[in-house]
User: Which sequence fits this backbone?
């Protein structure tokens, strides 16, 4: 009898199993839906708390940012939830502004989504158009990833067909003003904007936006170079460079009579460029050759006026760099030149130059072409003079670029470990005393393009190579498997890691 009951029970369980499994499968979508609603409701509850005055100021922004990032929903659903707050007649202005600020800080919203949100806020008069750039600065400064990933995010937003011209210009302004972007990243944003904008007038507006918001004269000129190189049409390139120089001159003239020398230098350069353009138009000069000469004129102007925002004299060096004692003959800086922390790439420089540029080639090299150098060739100079050592120029003496011997000492006298710092690939270099520095694999700049980013590192020494002709300079080279010294064309843009005696 027990056996019959057991058999009947087993049959009953087998018959019930498909129904039970089917019931679980049918309930699954409902469970997921409930989870989604619950997470979105967390966002709604935070909004209600802000609206009712229970959460305020920074605490409100923090809680709402967390709620956005925890929302178990796709990009469009998240965006729509925030837009619904902006469009709600029941939400206070403070609640709407908090929602905007939280969205700008959220890690799970794309920059393009944030632009869409700001455009909505302007349409419904929660924000004014002139406030957009300020909000976008917050968005850019909260971007995750390395510098190349940040540039890619900005370029993607600029390239979006859904982004209006006003929003693109606001994004350019924000990128220029953002403290977390290097000059190379800002030039990359300008280049992306020029390629994405549909016509000459909008491209010129982008250039003027960059000029107005870059504080340093040399940086303004670098922006002009980057922009005209990105323009596809030679005629537009020529018109744009003259218009941009005139806009820059007008901005400087507004500062007062103390800028007369700079205005004169710009006038002289503009006149020389106009002569080159006239020669092209009359058929007496090659277009490409004239453009190369125009770029050179901009480089020469940069050397004259590019070291500051208010005069022809270089700024006072700011020796704020910290160094680490690795137990070697010199102390090594904690960061690359131009970086704010050890994992930042910093700026790229051609060997013997002290200015950041839009492009790194023989056409823009300060000391001539590879077959016709004006310095560090047959003049007997094999080590950079202090005025051509960018570490000394930027940080002041006794900071300088390392010698080849000091690079060899770093290679042989320390332990090298390939690792990541703040998500950036590079080497932890540990001295025998246990102290460490981090060298990011920042690649290098050739022309206007970055090469070997996150794979290799290239750091200039202050020493010329002994290869005949003076074409090459010595450098530190590494990848994930090797560290060595090498020699490369001195026109390339490499990193600088200063040393201190």
Assistant:
């Amino acid at each position: 009898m027990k056996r019959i009951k057991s058999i009947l029970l087993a049959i009953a369980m087998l018959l019930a199993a498909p129904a039970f499994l089917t019931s679980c499968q049918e309930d699954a979508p409902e469970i997921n839906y409930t989870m989604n609603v619950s997470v979105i409701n967390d966002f709604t509850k935070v909004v209600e708390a802000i609206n009712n005055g229970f959460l305020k100021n920074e605490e409100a922004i923090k809680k709402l940012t967390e709620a956005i990032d925890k929302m178990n929903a796709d990009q469009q659903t998240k965006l729509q939830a925030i837009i619904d707050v902006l469009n709600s007649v029941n939400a206070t202005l403070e609640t709407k502004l908090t929602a905007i600020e939280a969205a700008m800080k959220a890690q799970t919203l794309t920059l393009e989504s944030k632009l869409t949100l700001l455009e909505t806020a302007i349409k419904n008069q929660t924000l004014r158009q002139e406030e957009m750039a300020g909000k976008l600065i917050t968005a850019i400064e909260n971007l995750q990833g390395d510098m190349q990933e940040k540039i890619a995010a900005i370029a993607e937003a600029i390239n979006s067909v859904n982004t209006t011209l006003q929003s693109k210009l606001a994004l350019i302004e924000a990128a220029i003003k953002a403290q977390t972007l290097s000059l190379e990243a800002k030039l990359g944003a300008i280049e992306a904007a020029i390629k994405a904008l549909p016509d000459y007038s909008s491209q010129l507006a982008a250039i003027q936006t960059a000029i107005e918001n870059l504080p340093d004269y040399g940086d303004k000129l670098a922006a002009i170079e980057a922009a005209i190189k990105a323009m596809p049409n030679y005629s537009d390139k020529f018109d744009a460079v003259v218009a941009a120089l005139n806009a820059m001159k007008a901005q400087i003239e507004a500062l007062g009579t103390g800028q007369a020398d700079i205005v004169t230098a710009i006038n002289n350069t503009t006149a020389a460029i106009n002569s080159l353009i006239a020669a092209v138009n009359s058929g007496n000069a090659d277009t490409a050759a004239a453009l190369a000469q125009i770029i050179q004129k901009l480089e020469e102007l940069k050397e004259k006026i590019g070291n500051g925002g208010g005069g022809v004299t270089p700024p006072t060096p700011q020796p704020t760099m910290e160094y680490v004692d690795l137990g070697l003959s010199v102390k090594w800086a904690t960061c690359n030149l131009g970086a704010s922390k050890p994992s930042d790439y910093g700026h790229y420089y051609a060997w013997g130059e002290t200015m950041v540029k839009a492009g790194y080639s023989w056409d823009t090299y300060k000391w001539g072409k590879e077959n016709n150098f004006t310095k560090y060739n047959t003049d007997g100079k094999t080590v950079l003079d202090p005025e051509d050592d960018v570490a000394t120029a930027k940080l002041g003496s006794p900071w300088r670029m390392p010698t080849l011997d000091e690079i060899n000492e770093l290679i042989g006298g320390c332990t090298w470990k390939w690792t990541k710092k703040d998500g950036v690939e590079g080497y932890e270099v540990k001295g025998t005393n246990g102290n460490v520095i981090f060298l990011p694999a920042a690649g290098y700049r050739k022309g206007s393009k970055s090469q070997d980013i996150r794979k290799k590192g290239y750091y200039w020494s202050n020493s010329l190579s002994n290869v005949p002709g003076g074409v090459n300079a010595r450098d530190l080279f590494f990848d994930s498997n090797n560290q060595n010294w090498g020699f490369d064309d001195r026109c390339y843009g490499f990193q600088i890691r200063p040393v201190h005696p």
